[in-house]
Specification:
393 residues; mainly alpha; 17 helices; 59% helix; 0% strand; Nod_factor_acetyltransferase; membrane; Acyl_transf_3_dom
């Protein structure tokens, strides 16, 4: 998925909204509609761009798979089929999410307003939820010794740290000649470096980096190629083959490889296995991600509006996902390990994450996810000049 010419005979797909996403997960802030009767800013003012339903659909479906994967985790020790499905989903759900994050970060630079959104939409939610998760573990898991440390992300907050680092490095990936091979080399080196440690969850930051860089390099034409009918048809046997391979590999391979949080040595294998597995999993993840995108609806669906709330669902569902372990729900209801129980768990996870992405939840938690914090930043000189000119006209 590198730069390519527009496919012959196909119409160029519209670009996504130009603004950088305000939140950490790839959910660009919906364009604000002017109040009734408000005049446009000037004669050259352009109407707000519409959100692309394809990307909102993809983000919603990906976050549903994230929630299902967390709900399946306790079942994998008792069901080989659940383990196989878990491995396949983990092979592409976060890579797809990260790739979209990279795609919507293409316009990021060190401009003041974009740095401000990076702080308010990524750094501040990280601090708030890292503290909230740590306090939750102290109380719900009866673990008073659990530290509150902003340097050691716990559970889901690693993604916010990673996105903050990735987005800051975006200008670098724009100027290097071979960004994707370079990012892959970084990921490979990380996979064989056990001394990196847990600070800022750098193993995940570095090992997932290639997917972000691929997103930076992608163009609308690439998504058009993945939406073609033949790709959709081909993706069905690809997914079936992936499930069969995962079913065979389930008792032979640790699913920890898909988390990308440990080096090969920490997983108890030789260093060269890290090189092989990093490259192999990158290839498999890209293929499965392309198959996933091929089946994402292009038109507006009932869940399209939920695509703007994926960060809310992602961070909030973690309390229930972890709480179900702390409170022993899976141990108290052993029928959950049966096939019907596994289906029930999947449906509940999908319903919960859907509810947490809804506009009412977004409004309730916007203070933590998308705080304005205008008091914390200097006003841009150009913006001040425009304000003065409007007030005097």
């Amino acid at each position: 998925m590198t730069n390519s010419l527009r496919p012959h005979g196909q119409q160029r797909a519209p670009l996504p909204p130009a603004q950088t996403p305000a939140s950490g997960v790839p959910s660009p802030r919906p364009p604000r509609t002017p109040h009734a009767g408000t005049a446009p800013a000037g004669p050259d003012a352009k109407p707000a761009k519409q959100r692309d339903a394809f990307f909102d659909n993809a983000k919603y479906l990906a976050i549903v798979l994230v929630a299902m994967g967390h709900a399946w985790e306790p079942l994998t020790d008792h069901s080989r089929a659940a383990e196989a499905l878990y491995m396949v989903v983990y092979g592409f759900h976060m890579p797809a999410f990260i790739l979209i994050s990279g795609y919507f970060s293409r316009s990021f630079d060190m401009r003041a307003d974009r740095l401000q959104r990076l702080v308010t939409g990524v750094a501040v939610p990280y601090v708030l939820f890292e503290v909230a998760y740590s306090l939750f573990k102290k109380t719900a898991d009866d673990d008073p010794s659990h530290p509150i440390s902003l340097l050691d992300p716990w559970y889901l907050t690693w993604f916010l740290v990673a996105l903050f680092v990735w987005r800051l490095t975006t200008p670098l990936w724009k100027v290097v000649r071979w960004p994707v091979p370079l990012a892959l080399a970084v990921a490979v080196l990380a996979s064989v470096s056990p001394d990196i440690g847990d600070d800022l969850d750098l193993q995940r930051v570095l090992q997932f980096l290639p997917f972000f860089v691929v997103g930076l390099c992608m163009k609308p034409e690439h998504f058009q190629l993945m939406r073609r009918r033949e790709v959709r048809i081909l993706s069905v046997p690809v997914f079936m083959a992936a499930l069969l391979v995962a079913y065979w590999a389930a008792p032979r391979m640790s699913s920890a490889w898909f988390y990308h949080r440990d080096s090969a040595q920490e997983l108890g294998v030789q260093w060269w296995a890290g090189v092989v597995m990093t490259l192999a999993l990158f290839g498999c993840s890209m293929v499965l991600t392309a198959c996933f995108f091929a089946w994402v609806p292009r038109r507006k669906m009932w869940f399209t509006v939920l695509g703007a709330g994926t960060l809310y669902g992602y961070l909030l569902h973690g309390f229930l996902a972890k709480g179900s372990r702390f409170w022993g729900w899976y141990d108290d209801y052993t029928w959950l390990y049966k096939p019907l129980g596994e289906i029930f768990v999947s449906l509940v996870a999908a319903a919960v994450i859907t509810a947490l992405c809804t506009p009412p939840v977004q409004r309730a938690f916007r203070f933590a996810m998308e705080p304005k914090m205008e008091w914390a930043f200097k006003r841009d000189a150009a913006e001040l000049a425009r304000s003065r000119s409007r007030s005097t006209s």
